[in-house]
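Notes to self after the call with IL:
- keep both proteins in one doc
- input above output, always
- annotate only the second one for now

Protein 1:
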Amino acid sequence: MTTTPDRLPCDIAELRTLFLFDKLDDEQLLFLCSRGHVERQEPGFVFREGEPADAFYVLLDGSLALYRRVGTDDVEISRTSQVGVYAGAWHAYLQQEEARRYLHSLRVLAPSRFYVLPAADFSEIMHTWFPMAMHLLEGLFFGQKSMQTATAQRERLLALGALSAGLTHELNNPASAATRATATLRERVARMRSKLALVASGAYDRDELVQIIELQEKAVAALEEARGRPPLSALDTSDREDDVADWLDDHGVGDNAEMAHSFVEAGIDPQWLEDHVGGIPENVVAGAAHWLGYTLETELLMNEVEDATTRISTLVEAAKQYSQIGRAAQQEADVHVLLDSTLTMLDAKLKGVDVVRHYDRSLPPVLVHGAELNQVWTNLIDNARQALAEMPPDQRRLTITTRRVDDWLEVEIADSGPGIPPEIVDRVFEPFFTTKPVGSGTGLGLDISWRIVVGKHHGDLRVTSHPGDTRFLVRLPLTPPEAS
């Protein structure tokens, strides 16, 4: 709670000793004393962040600390005993909404005295005594604000453009694969129709047809089983295809190179052929082998089409999840779904990076602005990717960890890059500060991320960095501030 101050006389001689007022004449100093007053404050809070900004405070003696609200905590940002430091409604001259509330909290650490000037009088003095300075300050304030807004929009558009290009590329690959597979599938089905016409002509008796159909079902079952096993190496695949082709040659099946490839891809080796095909009449082996080859090629092509269309659906769903299309601006969401959708959108950029996920799946959903939080993940992950580009290929690792810390959900995005130099690590969240070459970045990515996490979600964003280990920690409250 705030303390109740004692009012004391105002002495112009004491005001003249302060660096803020040392250029004022006696008439101006008397005006300050007539409009303002001196207060003695005992230890405790003088004002709180977010309260109406009623007064401008200048320290005459004592000690104080300034705090900013982060989530439900007051975080100390400075502590001083320097005479003449000021706080409170120092920007009341702007006559804007943001000037009407305190932007931080002031706490007295030891019995202290302040010169106190009402906000309205401070604004009047600034406009009357320093009109040129007022124009310069207002131009600087609003100009920087407009520039920051415009540049932030440009930053988002650049990120969106890069993601759109990556998504288009990622969609094109499976779409092209599906088109190729469909064209080949049409050719294979035509061959099967031709073979079916041969069967219908009476080339095989009933028992032989039954055997071929049974072999077909067993071959398809072998293919499904093979999909769950690790793929063979290129050398092992080539050796097995040679073995299968030799077996087919030995049984009078010619033109078998393509057929051998399909058999091996389906997990069929010479022993399988010997066990299942070797027992049928010799005059049927060639026809049965070709029929099995067509069947397996058709199944493999349909699997390829299925994989390609599934990939397209996954990418489209990730894009919807990333942009939060059709969802409320703020809603409860699983942070892992948001992280995975962002990783999917950045998949093309992360080629060659070992992405490791350490997720605590027991974490509950949190109330978030999903689309904006995805912008945070994009900025942090893309920064990590750029840092990893400087590392040898075998040392590029991105690790994403989620955990619960007290009443917070914590997301850690770590990379094994060269790290942030110690002399600038404390500046990375400053607007327009960037270590990238000119034209490569606006310096607003981390500033935007800070404002989304801290300002919009009442969370916290911080960084620790050493060579080979840079970690950005995002904390989101598990309990919304209004509820707590």
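Protein 2 (the one to annotate):
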Amino acid sequence: MKAHDGIYIDGAWRPAAGQDVIEVVNPADEQVIGAVPAGTALDVDTAVRAARAALPGWAATPPAERAARLAALRDVLAARKDEIAETVTAELGSPLPFSQAVHAAVPIAVAGSYAELAASYVFEEKVGNSTVLQEPVGVVGAITPWNYPLHQVVAKVAPALAAGCTVVLKPAEDTPLVAQLFAEAVHEAGVPAGVFNLVTGLGPVAGQALAEHPGVDLVSFTGSTAVGRQIGAIAGAAIKKVALELGGKSANVILPGADLARAVNVGVANVMSNSGQTCSAWTRMLVHRDRYDEAVALAAAAAAKYADRIGPLVNAGQQQRVRGYIEQGVAEGARLVAGGPEAPRERGYWVSPTVFADVTPDMTIAQEEIFGPVLSILRYEDEEDALRIANGTVYGLAGAVWAAEEAEAVAFARRMETGQVDINGGRFNPLAPFGGYKQSGVGRELGTHGLAEYLQTKSLQF
């Protein structure tokens, strides 16, 4: 795969301060496919200084011109969609059709949505005898994960640029190649030098330096809740804005009378998507006791179909972690009805699609985020019991409700402590806000709510 041997700062590729590199490994066969610089704190400082220098000019750029640059970025990404998909497949292990349909297509749509929002958003309004201004928050430090490596980049960078902010991006070390491709696209789209900067590197080095840098006004982070706590503490000490999209343990609640077969099949597909490496995955399926055994049989049969459809996990550590959770589920008394901890292939970081039955709410696999193709099926007695189980974790990122009548599902969803709920298989909406309750994070991404994260408010009284 093509890889730059430098970092992108102030509109140009330049050597990193150190000589260390990060090898990029294809998780399907464990082959090294490239290497990128392991950026240092000095590289981060150089990038932040470039972003600060570019901030006044970009903040003063008319929204229509910012929208034009974002539209150009969308078009460049669309022209390179095949390369994007192939790159994500190589460094993440995602099957190519999924990379094309999700990892490439969704970021292009999101970039386009912010091109339109930048042109139409009301950045200034009259409120009584005041003029209220929405101004860019400043320099953004964006730290992105490996599981949706381009989508998460675009979901942070596009609204930041639309708002008039400048950005320093530190992508995940497992999937940096598509971030380099994105930097090329930004350059080709004509975004001015210094407005966007890319420093590849390790989280504890480059990521921490970016979060701690006094020249960064907002840190936007997507990743684990544990790291989110650290970044939140750093931001709190510096009194700087923070946006955190963290873990999840989402409930898929199937109410009595719902189309059970459809709810189970869609639910299994949701969990197996991206090899289970999705923070919003519906990893807990809640089924009424009267149809529990039927649901378990349907889920086991559905999961078996994914054995040759899903890709590997991203790295050896993730594979070991997920297999450990499966072993713990068995040890705590859950019943395996599909899959298991054994690796299905000799090479690569593969885990079998796994389904547990007889899971109780207090089990580890029902409480902690596994981040792999593992589904837990829990039984409930009545709707109040289902609600108690659904809300009974520290997370609140997403979820689903299925019912015979839409109004019944909506009434239940309104009581769920979570940031996004799909009703009877509702479709993904790139304009709807995404983010969590409780320990699933702070702030929102996508649409107008995502743009608002990168703005601060000023009022002028007359």
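Annotation: The mean pLDDT is 97. Residues 68 and 304 are 47 Å apart (CA to CA).
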